[in-house]
Amino acid sequence: MLWALAGSAIMNALMGLALNQVLTTGAIPKHYMTPLFSGLYMVNMYFQSIGAVAIVKVNAPWFHVSERGRLGGMFGAMISMGLFFAFDANSRLLEALRGTGPGGMDATWWVFFAPAIGLAAIWLVEFILLRDRPSHAGYPDIDTGVPEMAHGEKPLPIRQLFKSVFGNPVLVTVAMIGICTGALRDGMMHWVPIYFRTPAGPGTASGLGLDMHHPINANWGLMLMCAGIVGPMAGGWARDKVFQHRCFPPATIFYGILILSTIAMYFALGNPYAMAAVSFCMALSYIGSQGLLTATAAMDFGGKARATATGVIDGFVYIGTAAQSVCLGQITSRDWRWWPVFLMPFAIVGFILCLRVWHVKADKDGRGYKAAPAH
Q: Are residues 120 and 228 in the same domain?
């Protein structure tokens, strides 16, 4: 987690510095900006992905298996709070920076320096407080209900590690669900603001033409944050208290909501408030399912391969992200009506895959998962 914070802080600082040099001194030519930012952002995402894996690995020894659904809810809420800063706080920061740079230009580079400072501050807090397990912080270790790596135990060899993950049919199914989650999450999260801001006009490629100060545009991050708190917390509570520590029943319910929401979305196009309502329902569902599957389900996997399982699931989520980015870029430039039609198959496939593992729960013998008896 410390490496992830440090790396991401440095990359954000370098992006801010590069943007400053492009706009103020010309030391970096403008035509270098796209490849330079692509490279820096790629390395930034590399460090962020390390952080996501490490969070699950570090948290696991602190919580019993019966509590991990609510922990996954906290994970989802944490993600959604980050979305608030990414969308709303950054937007307000850019507004405040208008005309504050040299010669009256906008000091937009601070949109990168600000998170770099925040990441550096959190690095210091975690360096002081963070510990891998209770015994490292002066507390007795707890029985988590699933196998954990013993102190000093050697990690599995790489080949055996990946075999234990990709040889587990449940983990492979979760990874496939991750593709659906990534497509649905980023197919809504990033495209709704674009649709709202795209100028209105004749033809099916026009948007709603709302300005940046419209309440929906101005509070898009806040709406995602609220949905991202409600969905994961509800899903985690249901996992712990209703479904006997099984992640997949609440994930199946979330995917059912996503199917209904994509249908409603087709008819909501053209109405900003109807779209906002549908978007809220979808956000609480895809963030809720991601918290259950990326955090909780991977945490339930055996101790030696837990971080690898998290990384694999998270990696497959970004396969879905990449797919929707390429496809929706083409689709929405021609006809926005195909937007919900494109998303619907991912919701249906995710729902079917969740049904296939409905009865699966964490296994105490170290094999990762077992199927609970059907009732």
A: no
Residue 355 amino acid letter = L
The dihedrals phi and psi of 92, each to the nearest 5 degrees, come to -70, -35
d(CA 296, CA 303): 13
Domain membership of residue 115 (yes or no) is: yes
**3-class secondary-structure state, position 369:** strand
pTM: 0.83
Checking phi first, is residue 142 left (phi over 0); if not, alpha (psi -120 to 50) or beta?
Answer: beta
The answer to whether residues 323 and 271 belong to one domain is yes
Domain that holds residue 186: 158-375
Q: Say how many Å lie between the first and final Cα of the chain, rounded.
A: 41
Does 151 reside within a domain?
A: no
Residue 267: predicted pLDDT: 94
Q: By C-alpha distance, which of 372, 374, 362, 365 is closest to 171?
A: 362
* Cβ-based neighbour number of residue 282 at 10 Å: 29
State the Cα–Cα distance between residues 313 and 291, nearest whole angstrom: 11
Residues 122 and 216 placed together within one structural domain of the fold: no
Q: What does DSSP say about strands 360-362 and 369-371: parallel, antiparallel, or unpaired? A: antiparallel
Which of these ranges, 121-130, 277-286, 355-364, has the smallest mean pLDDT? 355-364
